[in-house]
């Protein structure tokens, strides 16, 4: 475990933010991107850009900040910190604590969410550092990740047999996948398709304006694209996928129920994967959300259907550690846990009909 320092990024670093984040030890995450930071700035959060440095490496991480009445500032180190080894997390947070106190930033707690695989050893490291386990927030805290490094024929053979057979049948039966222009009309069509997904009821789906800004930002940055499959002349399956560094992500998807084209969703994903591999050299593709590995066969889990689809490409489910809180002011944090967080989430939902986080 090395020693780190923490600071805010310079103006020049912020101007090159994505190239710096994607050079982090684990290649960064799309939720640490400049595009996503801009989205959150319109939805109640203040983006901050933080750099951790040691003799061995530097890591660039997005923090989103919320000011909480009477308590101070709450920081969410979304999908971070991105570190070379789990044992670097306590050292990074020690540097962050010193930086916050030295700068009089009045932060009472920091939520972290590193893409570190969950196991007993990691939990022990975090416990010794005094971190508090909290509920997970991101859909891909458990997820299916496909290794996309093999050559195309081998990559297809590496898919789970269910996925491979569905792709081949859809190709034989003439299913066509189209990359769509990022127009307002196509975005609205995509949003309508998303309302059919089993675990995205209208009560949980964010507003169209949120997705429109998200999709537009990533498209403008050259990091996002939209695909449709049509049936009887109408869009029947849609997906918005992202390339961030050498990682691909199936960010959003939707489809009409009771379709007649077998394997259409599988062929769309296969097309997106091969396009991102050919054009951007992605080394992995994140299907962005499954049940946890120990709940994969639980038919009552809200993500069961999506889990079946996503694990038809790769059997392996990756469970990340999820969210932990670094407590900087114990008294204020207790107030946050007992009442503050719940009240703010309820008020934000009533006012905006949107999730707090």
Automatic annotation (TrEMBL):
Record carries keyword Glycoprotein: no
Gene Ontology biological-process entries: cell wall organization; peptidoglycan biosynthetic process; regulation of cell shape
Signal peptide: none
Residue stretches making up the BioF2-like acetyltransferase domain: 164-289
Acyltransferase as UniProt keyword: yes
Domain of life: Bacteria
Entries under InterPro entries matching the protein: Acyl_CoA_acyltransferase, BioF2-like_GNAT_dom, FEMABX, PG_Glycine_Bridge_Synth
GO molecular function, one term: aminoacyltransferase activity
Record Pfam families: Acetyltransf_6
Coiled-coil zones: none
Keywords: Acyltransferase, Cell shape, Cell wall biogenesis/degradation, Peptidoglycan synthesis, Transferase
Family: Belongs to the FemABX family.
This protein's name: Lipid II:glycine glycyltransferase (Peptidoglycan interpeptide bridge formation enzyme)
């Amino acid at each position: 475990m090395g020693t780190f320092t923490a600071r805010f990024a310079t103006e020049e670093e912020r101007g090159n933010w994505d190239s710096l984040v994607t050079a982090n030890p684990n290649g960064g995450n799309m939720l640490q991107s400049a595009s996503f930071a801009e989205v959150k700035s319109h939805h109640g959060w203040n983006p901050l850009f933080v750099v951790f440095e040691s003799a061995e490496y530097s890591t660039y991480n997005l923090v989103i900040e919320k000011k909480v009445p009477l308590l101070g500032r709450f920081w969410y180190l979304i999908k971070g910190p991105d570190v070379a080894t789990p044992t670097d997390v306590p050292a990074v947070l020690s540097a962050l604590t010193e930086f916050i106190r030295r700068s009089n930033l009045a932060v009472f707690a920091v939520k972290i969410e590193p893409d570190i695989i969950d196991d007993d050893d990691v939990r022990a490291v975090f416990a010794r550092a005094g971190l508090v386990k909290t509920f997970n927030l991101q859909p891909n805290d458990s997820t299916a990740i496909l290794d996309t490094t093999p050559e195309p024929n081998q990559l297809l053979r590496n898919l789970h047999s269910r996925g491979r057979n569905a792709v081949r049948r859809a190709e034989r039966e003439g299913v066509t996948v189209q990359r769509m222009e990022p127009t307002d009309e196509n975005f609205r069509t995509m949003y309508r398709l998303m309302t059919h997904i089993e675990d995205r009821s209208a009560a949980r789906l964010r507003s169209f304006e949120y997705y429109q800004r998200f999709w537009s930002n990533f498209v403008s940055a050259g990091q996002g694209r939209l695909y449709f499959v049509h049936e009887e002349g109408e869009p029947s399956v849609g997906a918005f996928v992202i390339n961030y560094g050498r990682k691909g992500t199936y960010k959003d998807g939707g489809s009409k129920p009771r379709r007649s084209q077998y394997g259409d969703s599988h062929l769309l994903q296969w097309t997106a994967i091969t396009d991102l591999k050919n054009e951007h050299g992605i080394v992995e593709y994140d299907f962005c959300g499954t049940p946890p590995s120990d709940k994969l066969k639980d038919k009552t889990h809200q993500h069961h259907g999506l889990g079946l689809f996503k694990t038809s490409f790769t059997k392996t489910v990756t469970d990340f550690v999820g969210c932990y809180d670094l407590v900087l002011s114990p008294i204020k944090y207790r107030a946050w846990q007992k009442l503050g967080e719940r009240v703010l989430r309820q008020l934000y939902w009533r006012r905006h009909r949107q999730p707090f986080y």
